[in-house]
Model the fold of this input.
Amino acid sequence: MKKFIAISMAALMTMAFASTAMAKNGYGKQKVVYHINYDNAKRQLAALRNIQNHINAVGAKNLDLRVVMHGKGYTLLKRANKDLALQDKIIKLKDQGVKFEMCANTMRGHKLKASDLFGLKKSDIVPSGVAEIAKLEQEGYAYIRP
Done:
């Protein structure tokens, strides 16, 4: 009887672990990089909606999601300085663990400081946007360019 209880307990623990390892809707843990390098407000907003939908499907705890911006992608955070609704979307995504990263080359080229871009900290600046994306892909991140 003790052996049966021990086996049953082990099975239950295994099932509990498996269910916590799986995200909502059967998705497992994911690592994803979203690439934004365009100046199109509608498209940038659509990208943020895609990111929120992604979180809703997989679950924030099961997702390591980065947004890497370079080129004209900096306009997303520049525009947010004056757009409270956009600020709210970015803050909500960050609160769910999304990391927004900006290319240092882009910042130099456009003479931008971290304080010029909404919510950007110095620790969010990467040496090169494209090199960061390539590095993340090598680390197993899925690439998405909405």
In short: The first helix runs from residue 2 to 21. Strands lie at 30-36, 63-69, 99-103, 125-126, 142-144.
